[in-house]
């Protein structure tokens, strides 16, 4: 199984368009006990449409692990607006909330989508309307508006902004008999649908990293037989080479303001952390020693960097203050901790944490100093990437002999797996919120 040091050694040794077959299929493997009950009634007028909004909302909420969803198979009443809802019936099911809606064709390829979120217990004798929204979209936008509806419902009920409208980037490795493997940098919806190829190469691609505005991705490509760092525009595909020094060019990581890129270079000997100013191309060396220093990640305020280093013997996580270059060790629990990044509130750090020779997803509580293992799998985990709301961590692991993407909630209670239909998926990166 790949892990941080193996990726690094790969650097040392190195000194297709997307199709439906590459779609990732999300499967909930563990949900929250006592999940919030909610009924999602099939939207009226959606029959025959290529993408069915209420079905996507059901899947989103179910796969969050935080909702027990009553769908068409569980219902005998199918109202499409608040005035037709029987609170007595839905209360008898034990549902706290009900989603109803309808879709109207406005002519041609224009559709009006209406939905309401109702609270069965807030009103006196009748359902109370909590959300009441209307959208006008084309047929190809129905999936996106459904994810947006899921986000609105999730935030209204849990108090946390949803991530169903976000994206993820990952590397898909496709192997063909008698030919070199193809490495495809793909971007897809958060649920694995609508995959789009950004780069297809017979040379390795790794370490995709989203810019804070979600418009660009930095990554490492070996397309010229040596490691180089590129930045690519997600919308246009335009890209530029930003680092191609002799030796290692690796592990790009954006600053919170999107103006700088932390990276790993070995141009002066040992691998060290540098910061590249995107506007001036000025390069500043941050660490300067003979240890392995890799996997930089900015703090939420941009004033420090987490990184992985061998300076204490085994691989551990350190933090460098960018103002005075002072370095402090962050992890002491266990003999291997790597690939660290802060949650967006700065209270926790996610990482790869080794337990009994297995590499798992761990999270460090900065108040208590304790690391908690979230997935505790018998197969190794790698490349953790935190959702923008901090609720889930995306990573890659082995399932049924293949590299697949998976998710675990920050409290460890929800787990999902996303096997691809063709190839091995690795190095995932969760996008920021997209406006």
Explain what you see.
The longest helix has 17 residues. The N terminus is likely disordered. It is built from 4 helices and 30 strands. It has 2 domains: 285 residues, 6 Propeller (Neuraminidase), CATH 2.120.10.30; 130 residues, Rossmann fold (3-Layer(aba) Sandwich), CATH 3.40.50. The chain is 11% helix and 44% strand. The protein has a 5-stranded antiparallel β-sheet, with no helix packed on it. Strands 3-2-4-5-6 form a 5-stranded mixed β-sheet, covered by helices on one side. Strands 9-8-7-30 form a 4-stranded antiparallel β-sheet, with no helix packed on it. The protein is globular and about 70 Å long. It has 435 residues and is mainly beta. A hairpin with a 5-residue loop joins strand 28 and strand 29. Helix 2 packs across helix 4.
Q: Provide the CATH superfamily of the largest domain.
A: TolB, C-terminal domain
Kindly state the number of beta strands.
30
Taking the alpha carbons of the first and last residues, their distance comes to 36 Å
- The CATH topology assignment of the largest domain is Neuraminidase
* Helix percentage range: 10-25%
